[in-house]
Amino acid sequence: MEKKTLSLKKSNEQKEFSGFTLIECLFALLLLSIICMLFSATIKNATVVTTQLKSEREKEWQIFVIQIENEMKNSSYEKTQPNKIILRNKQNNKSVWIEFKLGKIVKVENGGYHPLLMEVKEANFREDGNCVMIEVIFENDLAVTMKWIIPKEHNYE
């Protein structure tokens, strides 16, 4: 009896498949998931930063209001123009004004100025009866308003 052997021929030709291996696909999915997690974390942090900036602007506004009130105590009111309030210092009888210019609200006195409020997009000063209204819009579009009642010692014109 003859033994028949089955021999497999090895060919030097290798079939080449173009495509990704399973490990390459898993690695790509891992990278994609990491990018998505970072993107969602960035969006969450952006909302937190926005609310903090808004709260910082509100704090700056409150400090500004306190500074204006203190300035008004030491001065007498003269008149209001669209971009400024003109006062007279009670101690030295010199003019002092609070005005909006170049994105800031500043106090101008004796030739120098002191910035009171920064990053202001728009400001409007107006006299309304016995009140002065200050309306401010910050660069982040936060709009605030202050109403100051003119003391009775002022002669209304």
Automatic annotation (TrEMBL):
Gene Ontology biological process terms from the UniProt entry: establishment of competence for transformation
Record carries keyword Transmembrane: yes
Record's keyword terms, sorted: Competence, Membrane, Transmembrane, Transmembrane helix
Top-level division of the source organism's lineage: Bacteria
Listed transmembrane segments: 21-43
InterPro entries per UniProt: ComGF, N_methyl_site
Cell location: Cell surface
Pfam family, one: ComGF
GO terms under cellular component: cell surface
Protein name in UniProt: Prepilin-type N-terminal cleavage/methylation domain-containing protein
Lineage: Bacteria, Bacillati, Bacillota, Bacilli, Lactobacillales
